[in-house]
Amino acid sequence: MATCMDEGVDPTDMCQSMVERVARSKQLSAVTEPGILSLFEDWLEELDDEVVSFVKRTGSMDPVDLAKGCGLSQSGADFLISKLKREGKL
């Protein structure tokens, strides 16, 4: 089972705008180095899995709980919860 990040790093702050742009723009996908985009997508999928695992384990979708439990900022936790709900994963 995946565990939440222990480093206290909130990578969602660094990539939130990139995720939104990729979702909105096929042009960005066309000009982005395929290897980098693939690594980013893999990393984001792992982060999604960690959040889903946390929610299943704790029963909480509260952004404050998620932020504390996974070492994310509250805005990063909000973003991931919203994203996963839109995708039907939560």
Describe the structure.
By secondary structure, the chain is mainly alpha-helical. The mean pLDDT is 79. 17% of the residues are buried. Helix 1 runs parallel beside helix 5 (74-86) and helix 4 crosses helix 5 (74-86). The protein has five helices and no strands. The chain has helices at 11-24, 26-31, 34-58, 63-70, 74-86. The protein has one domain (13-86). It is elongated.
Count the E strands. 0
Shape summary? elongated
How many individual domains? 1
The amount of helix comes to: over 70%
What's the gyration radius in Å?
13 Å
Structural class: mainly alpha
Total number of helices? 5
Distance between the termini: 17 Å
Largest sheet: none
> What is the arithmetic mean of pLDDT?
79
Order of helices and strands: HHHHH
Q: How much beta, percentage-wise?
A: under 5%
Uncertain regions: pLDDT < 50 for 5+ in a row? none
Key traits:
90 residues; 0% strand
Q: Could you give the topology of this structure?
A:
Elements: H1 11-24, H2 26-31, H3 34-58, H4 63-70, H5 74-86
Brief rundown of the structure:
With about 90 residues, this protein is mainly alpha-helical.
